[in-house]
Amino acid sequence: MPGNKSSSSRERLKEILAILRKYQVVKGMTPQKLRGIFEDLGPTFIKFGQILSMRPDMLPTPYCRELSKLYDNVRPMSFGEAAKQVEHELGRPIGEIFSRFDRKPVGSASIAQVHSAVLKSGEKVVVKIRRPGIYAVMRRDVLLLHRVSGFMKIVGGTGNAIDFNQLIDEMWSAARQEMDFLNEADQAEKFRRLNSGIAYVKSPRVFRRYSTKGVLVMEYLGGIPIDNVRALEEEGYNRNEIGRKLTENYLKQIVDDGFFHADPHPGNLRILDGKIVWLDMGMMGRLTQRDQHLLRRAVIAAVQKDGHELCNLLLVFCNASEPEDRSRLFNDVENMLNRYETLDIGSMNMAKIRSDVLAVSNRNGLSMPRGFSMLGRGLVTLEGVVSHLSPDINILQVLVNHVSSSLLKELKPAEESKKLWLEIFRFGARFPRVPSQIAELLSLGIKGQGKVNVNLSGSEEPLRALDRMASRLAGAFVETGLLIASAILCSSDLPKGFWGIPAAGEAGFLISLALGALLFWSALRRG
After folding, report:
1. By three-state DSSP, how is residue 113 classified?
2. In 3D, which of 256, 249, 302 has the Cα closest to residue 410?
3. What pLDDT score does 392 carry?
């Protein structure tokens, strides 16, 4: 068996290298080439490309845009293979559970495929079936991906080094979660629970009795695809109303719930009986309460053009205590805000804002956490859906309104009043000490004992230059001292060395010669 695995890996590696040669990657990479490579290499690489498309903080935008075109149009399993997998997972013949099981799948993806069916109870369902052996296949491909990641280290001649190994690990982590259908069942039930109070939202319920890690049975929900504008109008739906409700609900998922659909493309959204139907809970984004609070603050800071607050929030979001150059980060944020100063919120779009924020982050060596990368992609995807459905609705304007109302709800007058009185009390308690502290400060100044601590932000390079200058100057003093000491030793009566002068003097001259050469080389190298 180990031999078979090794042989399989070698054959797969040859296949990967052959496809890389086919696309002539040694001559450079383009977005179209990368997408073609992933499509030719199959399910694992398609999934990798889909993950890559969500990381514009690590991959140039043209590549993300091209890779977002990757779809899971994978050759489906045969009906016999699918039925066998269902019976293996559920431990019973299909005929005992389903009164009807469609032979032709309604969809086929890299990890699973979906069939329509009817339970013995008469309920219409969809059955999601994991491909047998997919875990071992993807695990093998992930190991090989790590081995060939060097071929794609630099993409598109941009000079941006990309940590493909980190992205491969992220893809593998996401794929393992997707392969566990019980995890998706948990997410689907949590989504239904959080949105149960929204009258215009619907999502399929899970049939736990017939669900395992490899098979997921869910309620079938039909409806009109949300991008089928003509059909919606023929049914008498108001497109603006749908767009507004869809946007409000998605922002509620993000800002209020911290649990949002990470892939809100048209294939996962339908309209049924006046309700918005959300499908496929395999990929969900999560934000902690802290993240939700920071996001609200960031939106308000952006509206108020508060560059200092945005700069601080960006550092917190990116889990970085200090950027390489804080003053440059602040200037970049200010410049970004200035570009939007003459625009009203209604004329802005999420895609441009997301691109600008990521550009500032990359320029300052900051990397967005995965949750916020998924959030950014989700908002941009939804903006595309809404703009097609109802061009008059602006997601950013709705977001600002939603965040403002959320902040007002968070304010509790009684508690805020208590905090205010507490601060007044604390100030009152400290106030009697202020005159004596001022007197002490003046006394220190008169005596010349006052000290001022100054933090010169952005002065690191000049200080390094001064440090190098001081080091060279100290080296020159040492060189001079060695030469003088060696000359004095040469006139002494100490034992003679190789050149007929005292050996101590010879050693001193050799050391001073080496030190002088080192100083000269350092000066040349530094210009």
Report:
1. strand
2. 256
3. 85
Q: How many CB atoms lie within 10 A of CB 270?
A: 20
Which tokens go with 54? 């969500």
Q: Is 83 helix (H, G, I), strand (E, B) or coil?
A: helix
d(CA 103, CA 115): 7
Tell me, letter by letter, the H, E, C secondary structure of 292-311.
HHHHHHHHHHHHCCCHHHHH
Residues 444, 451: Cα–Cα separation, whole Å = 9
- The gap between the terminal CA atoms of the chain, to the nearest Å, is 62
Query: What is the CATH number that goes with domain 112-130+180-282?
Result: 1.10.510.10
DSSP string of 219-236, one letter each residue: E----EETT-HHHHHHTT
Instruction: Quote the CA–CA distance of 398 and 392 in Å, as a whole number.
Output: 12
Higher pLDDT, 180 or 64: 180
- Pull the structure tokens for residue 74: 């994978």
Name the nearest CA neighbour of 41 among 152, 170, 190, 186: 152
Average pLDDT score over residue span 437-442: 66
Cα angle, residue 349 at apex, residues 344 and 350 outer, rounded to 5°: 125
**Domain residue extents for the chain:** 2-74+136-176, 112-130+180-282, 285-413, 462-526
Please name the residues in contact with 490: beta carbons below 8 A apart, sequence gap of 6 or more.
501, 502, 505
**Which of 8-22, 263-277, 293-307 has maximum average pLDDT?**
263-277
Nearest to 483 by CA among 448, 507, 517, 500: 507
Q: Are 337 and 302 in contact (CB under 8 A)?
A: yes
CA distance 180 to 214: 7
pLDDT of 521 strictly over 60: yes
* Single-letter amino acid, residue 99: S
Tokens of 246: 């869809």
Nearest residue to 20 via CA among 163, 135, 137, 145: 145
List % helix, strand, coil for the chain (3-state, nearest 5): 65, 10, 30
Residue 47 has pLDDT above 70, yes or no: yes
Catalytic center residues = 263
Alpha carbon distance 164, 17 (integer Å): 17
User: Which H or E run contains 108?
Assistant: strand 107-108
Structure-token match 């390079």, residue found:
461
The alpha carbon of 58 is separated from its chain's Cα centroid by a whole number of angstroms, namely: 8
Confidence of residue 41 (pLDDT cuts 50, 70, 90): confident
Region for residue 305 given its phi and psi (left: phi exceeds 0; alpha: psi -120 to 50; beta: otherwise): left
DSSP secondary structure string, 202-269? E-PPB-GGG--SSEEEEE----EETT-HHHHHHTT--HHHHHHHHHHHHHIIIIIISEEES---GGGE
DSSP state of 456: -
Alpha carbon dihedral 204, 207, 212, 217, in 10-degree steps, equals -50
452 in the Ramachandran plot: left (φ > 0), alpha (ψ -120 to 50) or beta?
A: beta
